[in-house]
Structures are given as C-alpha cells and as structure tokens.
Design goal:
- The protein has about 250 residues and is an alpha/beta fold.
- It has a single domain, classed as Metallo-beta-lactamase, Chain A (4-Layer Sandwich), CATH 3.60.15.
- Helices cover about 20% and strands about 25% of the residues.
- The strands form 5 sheets. A 6-stranded mixed β-sheet has the order 1-4-5-6-7-8. Strands 9-10-11-12-13 form a 5-stranded mixed β-sheet, covered by helices on one side.
- Strand 11 and strand 12 form a beta hairpin.
- The N and C termini lie far apart (about 35 Å).
C-alpha cells in the first residue's frame, strides 16, 4: 500500500480518576510513520507527560523536530497540551472544535486556554473537517458527544488503525455505548455506534482509544485487548526518599 502507515503506542492511556485530583488525564499518544518519510503524532498528551513523551520518542529514534505532523482529535488538555513541542510540524486540529473552545471564557473545565489561543493563531495550523485530512492515507470523521466536534482518525495500513481517543474512552464505554463525560448522551451514543460500525467494517483493524490499551475485535465481535495495563504510581509516604511505595494500576 503506497499510503500505508505503521502505528505504535508511545504512551498508554489509563481509564481512571482520582477522588482527590479528579481526572488523571492519562491519555493515549501514538506515533505513526507513513509515506514520504512522514512522522506523525496522534494526540500529544498533557503537560505532565512531556518528559515521558520525549523519552519514548527518543527510544524510537525520533526527535520533536523530526515530527512532520500532529493530529489532534479534540481540544481537551490531556490530548493537545503538548503541541508546542513540535516546532516544525503541521498541527492538524478540528476547526469547529477549536473555534468553539477559544470562544469559551478562561477557566473553563478541560480547556487549556493559552495553548488553544496560541494554536488558533499559529501559521502551522491545519483546520480539519470530516473527510480527507490532506495527509495521504489518513481520513477523519466527526464523532461528537464527549466534545462538540471530536474527530476520529482512520489510517490506512496493514492493519488499518483507528485512533478514536475519547469517543469511547475505554472498553466499558465501548461495550455499553455510554460515557461518563458527555455533552449529550444521545448524540454520544450515536457517535459510539458510528465508531463501532467503522471498526467492524475492516476486519483486523486496531482501535486505539483514549484511556485504555489497543484493541481488536475477536471472532465473536467483542473487543480484545492487545496489551496489559502497565501503569503504576510511586509514592513517598515515609520519612526518607528511599522509602518508595509502589501502587500497581494494572
């Protein structure tokens, strides 16, 4: 396939919240390599993931300046906050969503207003709508509900990859067609149904959701995880730095 992309997860998403801190914002970030030597990042993660993101890129032999394209599914902080790291990349973002976000008052939940205002003014911004992205082998479709104009990216390859972020953030939301963060449950359910239809249409397609591990559909048409959760939290709860308590989150 001339327009084929290979996709691998750089940062694994996690389906959880903290009672004291609210949303963790631990979202999936993926690296895609495609035709003509293009190197794309699928979402960018939150500011707190920046060091890990740099380390994971380095492990793949990629520097931030090697990234030619950044594709953003939606403008919540944990999916777009690190776009300024990629100084030479074209930043592809949902146009209607960005317009909506910059019109909201400062301090609105989930929206990193300074990063979004800078993106809206950037000459490197590519404003996306449903359909072709301008990148060979990558199309997108709108799937609102979690956010007003959330996009899903479909990347040609062997296998096809669907990067759906927070349309259905985890396997529970895929199974129930319900989401715990939704602007409109009915609209959101229709978007999840559209995502599932696109996933089923190409057997073997890998689905990358925003807050879980990669999945494929098994022979019975059920989501099958392709990896184990590897997240853990190290905490300093004692009197010395040497006393580290690890809480596995698998």
């Amino acid at each position: 396939m001339d327009n084929a992309w290979t996709v691998e997860v750089l940062i694994q998403g996690y389906p959880g919240k903290s009672k004291e801190q609210g949303g963790l914002g631990w979202s999936t970030v993926a690296l895609a390599r495609g035709p003509g030597g293009r190197v794309a990042l699928l979402d960018t993660g939150r500011l707190g993931a920046r060091k890990v993101l740099l380390e994971r890129l380095k492990s793949q032999g990629v520097t931030p300046d090697d990234v030619t394209d950044v594709l953003i599914t939606h403008v919540h902080y944990d999916h777009c906050e690190n776009w300024p790291m990629f100084h030479k990349a074209r930043i592809h973002a949902p146009a209607k969503e960005l317009d909506w976000a910059v019109a909201q008052p400062d301090g609105s939940p989930m929206l990193p207003e300074f990063a979004l205002k800078a993106l809206a003014a950037s000459p490197r911004l590519s404003r996306l709508a449903e359909g072709p992205t301008g990148l060979p082998g990558i199309a997108c479709f709108e799937a609102p509900g979690h956010s007003p104009h959330h996009l899903v990216f479909v990347l040609d390859g062997a296998p096809t990859t669907i990067f759906s972020a927070d349309v259905a953030k985890n396997r529970a939301e895929l199974a129930t067609a319900r989401a715990d963060i939704s602007l409109d449950p009915a609209v959101h359910a229709a978007s999840i149904a559209r995502l599932l239809e696109a996933w089923r249409a190409r057997p073997g397609t890998v689905l990358l959701v925003g807050h879980d591990v990669p999945m494929v559909l098994d022979e019975a048409g059920r989501p099958k995880p392709l990896a184990m959760q590897r997240n853990a939290v190290d905490a300093w709860l004692g009197a010395t730095l040497e006393e580290v308590t690890r809480f596995p989150l698998s």
